[in-house]
Amino acid sequence: MGTNLTDPKWWSTAWQTHHQRYVSRPSYQAYYLDCILPKGVKQLLELGAGSFRDTAQLNKWGYECTGTDFSPEAVALAQRTYPRWADRFHTADATTLPFESRSFDISFHSGLFACFDDDAMIHAVLQEQARVSRVAIVCTVHNALNATLKEQFRRQAESDPLYQIRFFAPEEITQLMRPYSARLSLYPFGALWCNRLIKYGRNRLLTRWYYRLTHKRWRWESCERIMAVGWFS
Ligand SMILES: C[S@@+](CC[C@H](N)C(=O)[O-])C[C@H]1O[C@@H](n2cnc3c(N)ncnc32)[C@H](O)[C@@H]1O
Question: N or C: which end of the chain has fewer CB within 10 A?
């Protein structure tokens, strides 16, 4: 795994190249999160928000979503792309968050743990998530059961260290999150047909209906990510 991925300076340079491409794609994490959030949840926190496309989308839908990333350049680029929500975007390290305890219903991230080969970093982030959240913590990780995706990343990593990432098996993310949750749910994220529905429909209610009806039958081997949710009760 690239040691670059834990360096905010490296990410600041990387986001200058990748920001536009990320924000032109659908905010899949926002759609999948919206499928599983319980009623009444409103205040959200995203860590390692990168392009901030998911934070922006969730705000458009009426959630109060604060987005954070340790790269000041990622934050500045996102503030230019999404000026309406600029005051909700902050530079912050996910291991030392500048928020009071229990400030948010749910904290989440998508692809952040891919940056860490050291479990100590993962525990430091989980500890902070558990501290600032009231209802649950969400960790979306790249799915080690998807061999095709792993191979694709391995090939792309030859020319771009952005792809030198860590994948997680369901048991691995379960073990990491167990000490911070009363109950764990693993939800599939990124199956082909649901991604297409999101990409071409951009319809939140239709996506939610389709996801809830079908996701229990999705094959883990064909899903891009695992959305692991640690509930506090
Ligand atoms: C794979 S990217 C996430 C992409 C994001 N989900 C999106 O859709 O745009 C990982 C992000 O985590 C950030 N990051 C890495 N380590 C961090 C840390 N310790 N604290 C905060 N952000 C961190 C990087 O700057 C990068 O933007």
Answer: C
